[in-house]
Structures are given as structure tokens and as C-alpha cells.
Amino acid sequence: MGGWPFWLSGFAIGLLVVLFAWIAGKAFGVSSSYGSVCGVVSKNSFFKSRPFGERWRLWFLLGFPLGGLLSAALTGRLQPTFRLAGFEALFGESVVVKGAVLVAGGFLIGYGARWAGGCTSGHSITGLAQGSRSSLVATLGFFAAGVIVTQLLFMFLGGAA
Amino acid sequence: MMNFAALAFGCAFGFALSRARATDYDTILGMFRFSDLHLMGVMGVAIATAAIGLAVVRRRARHAVLGGTIDVQPKPVQPGLFAAGLVFGTGWALTGGCPGTVLAQIGELKIYALCTAAGILAGTYAFGMRSSRRAAAASRIAAPAHASRAT
Asked: Which of A68, B58, B69, B124 gives A110 a disulfide partner, CB atoms 3.0 to 4.6 angstroms apart?
């Protein structure tokens, strides 16, 4: 599949967290960048204040698609696709249903991340690496819902494939 | 310089997440079903590596290489944190993505990730609107209209 083994992947991500802190002085956390994007179009003071008002977060956000593009291109898998592998086995092929589930799920991600003050990167990796209690609580929530909802999905929709 | 560094690091993170298969729907769902523990291992090693490295940086480096303080701190404990986590986790399971991996998916030309990203933006916006409304209401209670000048 062109993927790295778990130890190399984990080491690379952990090392990047350290280098980002050492070189740029910043904490690895992606969800705040979405707040910065909101700040570009909204006058709401929430998005103008720290941390969202920081300009670099927009550039940080733009880097991720470039990295994904590079990774896919280097493995020769660069081809536009309207499929998300196992996603269709659960939700079917309907464009409307797929789009609606992803937008709704995305909404929960955005709302939950802002409410929790971070996401998988800021809480579960950078936060846990600092032994932060808040990040432990948030991460337990992330995984508790992730496991329960996935089990329910496969229980009720798993046969729909 | 900071903007360029942020772009370069974003690119490197996106690349690593893609190679870690964190952008793969089946791998994420496999983690939640305990049928594929690859990503658990990835996160475990990443946390351990970052924990050691951040401790060293904190002890040795007084400033960031590009200047300024090293702004990496634990996030505050706040009410509703677990509930907030549950909301996030529900979306994570439904989409098989999180804020970082969805962006990398877009780069991999997984077109549907655009829907997830749009949803994340909308959710972020909705929370911002709600919390600024709450802050406005709270300041009205703290300082009744006839007495408030600074709001």
C-alpha cells in the first residue's frame, strides 16, 4: 500500500512535533487553523482573538494537502476518486447520502474540537505527550465515542453492503 | 519566515499522516473496531517520541530557532471536556477523518474529503458564534446595560 510501518510513522510524526516546537516554537494542532479560516470571512471577535488570529495557521493548513498530494504522487496512486473505501459499504453509493453524512460528521468534528479546545493532533498527540490532564479527558471522549459509534454503525448498517 | 515554516511543516505532517495510513477510512474504522491496531501503534510511538523530545527541547532551548518563545503548553481543564470529546469522536467515526487527515485526504484527491472539511468549517463557525453570543450575554449579566460602558 506504500504505507510506513507503525513505528516509523509514529516516530516521524513525533519527531515533527518536536521539530515544530524547537524551530517554530509552535504546538502541533490543526483544528485551530479552521478557526483562522473562519476569521478570514467572519468579523466575529471569537475568530480574531488568539489563537485563531495568528496568520501562520492559515499557511499551516495549506501545507497538509500539499503533503498528501506529494505522498500520493510518489507512490503512483495519484488519481481523483469519489470513493472512501469502506465508507460506501456502510452508507451506500448515493451521492446525497454520502455528502450529507460527511458534512454532518464534519460539523460534529468542528464543533467538538472547538469546544474541547483541540483535536487528535493538539490533544491526543501534543497534549498527551506533555502529560496534560485535559488532553487525557478529551482523548478518552474522542475514543469512547469513536468506538461506540463505529460498533453501532456496523451493527445496524454493516449488512447493507 | 514563520509563514513559510508553517507551510513546510504542514506539508511534512500531511505527508507523514498519509504514509501512516491515517488518511485511510478503513484503517481508522479498523482502529475503532480493534481489528487493525496499526494506528494505535502509530499514536503510541508518536506520543512517546514527542514526550521525550519536548522534554529535551524544554530543558535545552530557551527560544525557538526562528525567534520568540516556545509556545507549547498543556491545554486548560474546562467543563464539558468529555462531552466535547464525545461530539468530536462521533464525527471522527462517521467520516473516518479528523481535521488534519481530512486536509491530507484532499491532497490525495479523495474528493469527498471536501465535504468533511466543509462540515468542520461549519461546526467551527457555529461554535464560535455560540460562544461569542454567550460571552455577550454573560457580560450583560455581569454589568447591567445602564452601568456598562466598556462592553
From this structure: B124
